[in-house]
Amino acid sequence: MKWNYNNRIYFVPLILYFFLLEKGYFACKDNPVEFELEEVELIEIDDPLENPFKGFATWIGDTNPMFDEKLQYATFAWRDIEPQKGVYNWSRLEQGWGDVQKTEKRVGFRIAACIPGSEQNDIPQWLIDEGVSMRPYSIDGHQGFAPDWDDTVFLAAHHDFITALGSRYDQDPRVAWIDIGSYGFWGEWHVWLNESLSATQETKQAILEDYFQAFPTKPKVIAFDDDFATKYVTERGGGIRNDCLGTEASNNWYLKSLDRINPTLNENVWKTAIITGEFCGGTQGAIDGTTLRFNLNFDFIKQTHWSFIGPAGGAIQPQSEEHRKNLELLHKTLGYRFVIRRFVHRDDVKKGENFEFDIQIENKGIAPFYFQWPFVVYFTNENDSTLLEVETGIDIREWLPGTWSKIVSIYIPVSIPAGVYNIKLAVHDPNTNEPALLFANTNKDQKLRYLVSRVRVM
Questions:
Q1: C-alpha closest to that of 193 among 237, 126, 137, 142
Q2: Rounded to whole angstroms, how far apart are CA atoms 176 and 166?
Q3: Alpha-carbon gap, residue 394 to 207, rounded angstroms
C-alpha cells in the first residue's frame, strides 16, 4: 500500500489507543488493570514445629522442657474409674487434662486391671465381691494379685465398662488415641514370668473386641508383647506400641517379635496406623537412650516409623548442648514434617471457571498424618479479607515420607470481585474448622495460613 498523509492520521491514534490500553487507562470491572504479579518464593525453615499428633507425649499434666508439646498420656486402674458398678468417675480420668481446646494438648490413655507396684487390687472391689478370683503374681520385685481373665463375670463387667468408656470418649476430640489395655501387667498384654496367669485366646479376643466395638472411630494401638493380640489388632487397622525402647537388645526384641507374626508387619502398619512407644528404664533410660545410645535409637525410630515418644521419654531434660541438638533433631524427625515445595498455576482465571494448580508437598518426617483433616485454599485481598475459601478434596493422609504431587482444580464463583488475590493454604482441624497445622515454610500469617502465590481473577 502506498503511504500517504491520510494513512498517518489514522495510524497514530491507533498506536496511542493500544499503548493506553496496555497501561490500563480503559480499565473497568470487566477489563481489570493489568500489571505484573509479584512472585511468592517458597522458602523452607528448619525450626521445630509443635504440631498435633507427633513429637513427645508427656505424662498428663506435665510439660516438656524444650517444646510446647501437643500430647499427654497416662495409665488408669479400672478400680479408680468405676468404683461402684455402673457408676463412673470420669473426673478422675480427666483430672489434669487442662483446657484441651485451648492448649491443643490431646490425651491418650490406657486402662489396666493389674498394675505391679500399685500395692492394691486394680479391678474394682465390687467385682471381686461378685466372685472374680484374684491370683498371686510376682514381677520386678512387686507382689500382688491379678484377676482371673477367663472368668465370665470379669468379662461381662469388662464389656460394660469399655462400652461406657467408648460412649464417652470415642467421639471426644480431646482424645487423640486409645491404648488397648486391660489384659496383662500394666495393661501391656503380657504376664512375664507368670505364665500360669495367661488367658485363653477366646478371652483375649473378647477383650480386644470390646475395644473395637466401643471405639470404632478412635485410633487404637496395642503393646506388641502378645503375638495373637498384635496380629488381631493390626489386621483391623490398629497400630503398635513399643514399651521398651532404648538398647540394642530391646530394640531387636521388638523386631523379632513382629517378624514372628509377619516379617513385613511394621512396614505394612505404619502407612495407615500409629507406631509409638516409650523408653525402658523411665527417666534415666530416656536420658541414656538419647545421649549414650542416641544414634542407635534414632536409627531404630526411623526404621520403624514412630510418630511420638512417651510418656517415658516425653519430657527429657537436656543434659548438654549436644543432647539438646539430639532432642531437637528427634523432634523434627518423629511423625510428619510437611514442606510446600511447588505451587504452579496460570497468572489469571476467569470468574465462573475452574482454577487449576499443580502442588507438591514433601514430607521430611518418617510417618504420615493419620487424620482426614481438610486442606483448604484461600483467596484474600490486599486487606487480608477472605473472598474465597475452598476445601480442595486433597487427602493429606496420602502425604507419606517423600514427595507427593497432584494437579487440583477448584471452581471460581461468578460472585467474586475481579482483582488480584493472595493465595493461601491451610490444613483445618475439623473440630474447630480453623487452620491448625504448621508447615516448614515461611509466609505464615497469624491464622496459620501460608501465602504461596498470587492470581488475577477476571
A1: 137
A2: 13
A3: 36
Q: Please report the pLDDT score of residue 458 as a whole number.
A: 96
Residues in CB range of 195: below 8 A, 6 or more apart: none
Q: In terms of residues, how long is the chain?
A: 458
Same domain, 178 and 314: yes
- Examine the fold and report which residue of 275, 310, 333 is the final residue of a domain before the chain moves on: 333
What pLDDT is stored for residue 10 in this prediction?
Answer: 40
Q: CA distances (Å), 2 to each of 5, 7, 11, 14, 140, in order?
A: 10, 9, 14, 18, 109
Instruction: Judge if 245 and 129 occupy the same domain.
Output: yes
Q: Mark whether 82 and 161 lie in a shared domain.
A: yes
Residue 276 near residue 221, CB atoms below 8 Å: yes
Number of domains in the chain: 2
In sequence order, the 6+-apart residues with CB closer than 8 A to the CB of 299 are none
Q: What's the chain's average pLDDT?
A: 93
Backbone angles phi, psi at 261, to 5 degrees: -80, -50
d(Cα 46, Cα 375) in Å, to the nearest integer?
A: 23
Residues in Cβ contact with 205 at an 8 Å cutoff, skipping those fewer than 6 apart = 228, 232
The domain in which residue 287 lies consists of 55-333
173 CB neighbour count, 10 Å cutoff: 12
Give the global pTM: 0.91
Tell me: do 131 and 196 sit in the same domain. yes
The CB density around residue 290, as the number of other CB atoms within 10 Å, is 23
Tens-place pLDDT, residues 98-124: 999 999 999 999 999 999 999 999 999
Non-local (6+) Cβ contacts of 107 within 8 A are 60, 71, 72, 73, 97, 100, 174, 175, 176
**Range scoring the smallest mean pLDDT among 13-17, 82-86, 264-268, 326-330:** 13-17
Residues 6+ apart with CB under 8 A from 287: 316, 317, 319
45-99 confidence digits (pLDDT tens): 999 999 999 999 999 999 999 999 999 999 999 999 999 999 999 999 999 999 9
- The answer to the question of residue 28 being in a domain is no
Domain-embedded: residue 16 = no
Q: Are residues 319 and 384 in the same domain?
A: no
Q: Which three cell numbers stand for residue 183?
A: 489384659
Of 333, 362, 392, the position where a domain reaches its end is 333
